[in-house]
Amino acid sequence: MGTSWADAVENSPTGPPGNAGIAALKSAYVPPHLRNRPPASSVAAPPSGNDGFANARPTGGSQWPASRPDYGRRGYGGGGRGSGGWGGRDREVNPFGKDDAAAADTEPAFNEQENTGINFDAYEDIAVETSGQNIPPPVTTFAEIDLGDALNLNIKRCKYVKPTPVQRYTIPISLAGRDLMACAQTGSGKTAAFCFPIISGIMRGHIANRPQGTRTVFPLALILSPTRELSVQIHEEARKFSYQTGVRVVVTYGGAPMHQQLRELERGVDILVATPGRLVDLLERAKVSLKMIRYLALDEADRMLDMGFEPQIRKIVEEADMPRPGERQTMLFSATFPKEIQSFHSNRSQVGRVGSSTGLIVQRVEFVREADKRSHLMDLLHAQRDSGIQGKQALTLVFVETKKGADALEHWLCLNEFPATTIHGDRTQQEREFALRSFKSGRTPILVATDVAARGLDIPHVSHVINFDLPNDIDDYVHRIGRTGRAGKSGLATAFFNEKNMSMAKGLGELMKEANQEVPEWLTRFAGRPSYGGAKGRHGGGRFGGRDFRRDSSSNRGGSGHDYYGGGGGGGYGNYGGGMGPGVSSAWD
Ligand SMILES: Nc1ncnc2c1ncn2[C@@H]1O[C@H](COP(=O)(O)OP(=O)(O)OP(=O)(O)O)[C@@H](O)[C@H]1O
Known about the structure:
Layout lengths: L4 H7 L6 H9 L70 H10 L42 H9 L7 H11 L3 E5 L6 H15 L16 E4 L3 H14 L7 E4 L5 H9 L4 E4 L1 H9 L10 E5 L1 H4 L5 H10 L9 E6 L4 H6 L16 E7 L5 H14 L8 E5 L3 H13 L4 E4 L5 H12 L5 E4 L12 E6 L6 H8 L9 E7 L7 H10 L6 H8 L43 E2 L2 E5 L9
Parallel strand pairs: 1-6, 2-4, 2-5, 3-4, 5-6, 7-12, 8-10, 8-11, 9-10, 11-12
Antiparallel strand pairs: 1-14, 13-14
Helix pairs in contact: 1-15, 5-6, 6-7, 9-11, 17-18
The chain binds adenosine-5'-triphosphate (ATP).
Adenosine-5'-triphosphate (ATP) binds next to helix 6.
């Protein structure tokens, strides 16, 4: 296992409080090129459990009066191979930990709780459009939605006061059994929006008995996400939402030992959260069957439908034994849906417009030459430190283009006494998880990352996202800056722009304008140059939100989309809704 600043801090008994801690740890710092060598001495045990974060998770049984209306009914009590639910031998770990005890004492009503950022109500202003026929109306409170007692209790435990817009619109649609494609801003609560209906549906559903006596497992719902860390996070969230509902959630992803994940699966699984590669592996080994899938959710759906994931998604959706569209519910969620996907689905549906990057993020773009980037970064970090933000453990996420670049920058930052760690594809999964944990805890308040950390990660207290290297795709920019300004909290995003990024000028300017940000005059000038007007990404440009391509008659309807899902069936899609009746084939499939 490699060691980095983060690892050293993680294993340090005292952590890095102040300069003394930093000085003490300096000798433990190992430059990136020396990592991944066999450790000279024993190091702390790796994180245990499927998600690698189990060490931090408190254990112990529930202190809640159990409210498990479904426990014991068919399909939940078995716990044996091939079945789901919590078995008699398993004790469900309380994912709320200590908070649960405190919450249990008070049992606050929805309106007395708080999990609202300072600008949570800003979401109320977002214009929401839905399309499709006979769409169930949105709700304004969780109490209006019949999610079931056990799930409602968990929503309270999560301290969610009221549903966010994406939840208000999509949950009733999903509960009505309809497929949907939902586009909503980063940090606006999409995870709960697809988890709640799935959990509730499984709790109440009349689901046929799953095959017994086989080592293959038969999950009822599948949630796919593009990165390991995001799958781990969705798993953690889903475990909270499904606590004491009888619904069992398991995660499986690459880079972690297969046998541990298999053991978890064999204990029973209702909802399987997975990255596509590992799932394909499990399907090929016949460890998992998708025959019983009733719900399929794709988080970061535009990324999942991207060329990079095409072979795996095709295998999972088309070539495995998953029920056909109409026999299962399909949900696509993301903050961005580029032109191609919109166009492909446009023949039978309309996607309404949704604000794209959130107004909660202050966006700044600065012209910085390549050679000046490090000193400019140093200025920003010093300013933060001086203004006391670092002292309060505010976190800074720095995006770079390459893995080598990430290591080099981390090395340089550490040499300059800025505790930093990295997350990128060349690090082992264990190192990635250590790094993320160290960052989240504030022990290493600077994380240098490639795009592997761009999507979905919900890290509280990230106050500043710095695009040290801008991406080439405006959608990627939207996701990257969305690591701050989440759940109603404000954030800051700074981008270093230079002549290498000219193709981004127009898209960036438009995006900033749309979000009422101050666009520097020089950026507008660059954007005006015909040769730099592109801002094209790998999808050929166009964000869901910035422009509704389905309403653009010139768009290439039904053109170059991903038609390997079976010909683009019909049904209404909405941004926060849309949808189609059960039995109608999904446009996505
Ligand atoms: N109804 C709610 N009330 C308060 N907080 C909420 C509510 N729903 C979700 N949250 C919180 O908002 C944060 C962001 O949610 P989530 O990670 O699901 O966002 P997202 O829309 O999936 O973002 P991204 O596009 O970056 O993936 C989480 O910390 C979550 O716990």
